[in-house]
Amino acid sequence: MPDGTTLLLCRVEDRRGLSHLTAARSANGVDGWQIDSKPTLPADPEHFSEEAWGIEDPRITYIPELSQYAVAYTAYGRGGPGVALALTKDFVHFERYGVVMQPEDKDACLLPRRMDGHWALIHRPVSAKTAHMWISYSDDLRNWGSHKLMLEARLGGWWDANKIGLSTPPIETPQGWLVLYHGVKLNAAGAIYRLGLALFDLNAPDHCLKRGDEWVFGPEESYERRGDVDNVVFPCGHTLAADGDTLRIYYGAADTSIAMATASVKELLGWLKRHD
């Protein structure tokens, strides 16, 4: 936030099983969290029927042109999960755009600036048994088209076979958009969610420049391996320090708690160059 505060928009599931989003704020981004006493962005099924079963997995992008934050989140209704969008200046008042990508679709994020005059939205529709990352374009943030495949899930025994999706919002670097994405591998015991890296062209973000061959971050600690959903690390947000290099990654651990990991953007780019 402008005052240096770290704000997390957390997915919270109530005892009915329905989710809402609640803000947590910290002066240093590590401890001393102040959590809103009531939902910051509750589901609103009365006006948006596609939110009947809750909302989850927000990704926040600051949009300088609008002087607002864009929150892309999953709206869960009878038709399945879809991508919804809301704008806010203060995380108190929100302008909802409703569902902008119909079910089944999720793992979405708005890029912070226009591409060739158009807004760009990364998202993850599902087709049959596969799920790839796509990017779509819009003039008004409501109507989306020019859909392009951005990154395909691999096949076979790869760690990211069959199903992938965006993790944190893309990080703009001189070399390109650095993207952390999750891959899901199925085995006899269930699914394992792990993270990999890819790099995309700054002005043509559907063009992949590099893609790592291995995963770089996976569930290891007890709070990542056991919970409501075992073996999951699932980041939706990050902060980048003033040095332009120190990255704090905030992630869901086993769908039960929120954890933080740190990394260096320079080191991630170096690793990607070696493992492309």
Describe, in plain words, how this protein is organized in 3D.
The chain is mainly β and 276 residues long. The chain folds into 2 domains: 1-152, Tachylectin-2, Chain A, CATH 2.115.10.20; 153-276, Glycosyl hydrolase domain, family 43 (Tachylectin-2, Chain A). The chain is 5% helix and 51% strand. The chain has helices at residues 222-225, 265-275, and strands at 6-13, 19-26, 34-35, 55-63, 68-77, 80-88, 94-101, 105-110, 119-127, 130-131, 133-138, 144-151, 164-166, 171-173, 176-187, 190-200, 208-211, 233-240, 246-253, 257-264. The strands form 5 sheets. Strands 8, 9, 10, 11 and 12 form a 5-stranded antiparallel β-sheet that branches. Strands 13, 14, 15, 16 and 17 form a 5-stranded antiparallel β-sheet that branches. A 4-stranded antiparallel β-sheet has the order 4-5-6-7, with no helix packed on it. The chain is globular.
